[in-house]
Write a structure and sequence with these properties.
By secondary structure, the chain is mainly beta. It has a domain at 33-114. The chain is 12% helix and 51% strand. It has helices spanning 40-47, 90-96, and strands at 2-12, 16-27, 30-39, 49-56, 63-70, 77-81, 100-105, 110-114. An eight-stranded mixed β-sheet has the order 1-2-3-7-8-6-5-4. A hairpin with a 6-residue loop joins strand 5 (63-70) and strand 6 (77-81). Residues 1-25 have low confidence and may be disordered.
Length: 127
């Protein structure tokens, strides 16, 4: 997965301008935008206990781990590690919890990444 940005500028006269910067990820040639983001702590407060769980890729047979958040009586939420972050152990996550965030992509999937790496950018409308 690669991170990139889209930049669009528009200026009408000397007093008006529009400057938009948006983050996206590219997966299999398709752009996947970030819909929401939370600090790891805030996400865990709303989604339940965080655990690291083993999975197997059905297509390749490759083993990997992902984060799961559980609350009794509610569906499990799976949060994959971003490719830029890589897989972390429970101890590493606990040590870095204040610098990690969870982002929801427009495909409905969740990713764990460093704060700011996939954060929404400010729109400067030059008012």
């Amino acid at each position: 997965m690669q991170l990139g940005s889209i930049h669009f500028s528009y200026t009408a006269g000397s007093e008006m301008g529009l400057n938009i910067m948006a983050k996206f990820t590219q997966k299999n040639g398709k752009l996947v935008g970030i819909q929401q983001s939370w600090t790891l702590v805030d996400f865990a407060k709303s989604r339940g206990t965080m655990k690291i769980a083993p999975f197997v890729n059905k297509e390749t047979g490759e083993a990997f781990t992902s984060c799961v958040f559980t609350t009794p009586g509610k569906p499990i939420t799976i949060v994959n590690f971003s490719s830029n972050l890589g897989e972390l152990s429970a101890k590493q996550i606990a040590m870095q919890q204040d610098s990690l965030q969870v982002v929801e992509l427009d495909n409905g999937k969740f990713k764990l990444c460093k704060q700011g790496a996939d954060a929404w950018q400010t729109v400067n409308l030059h008012f």
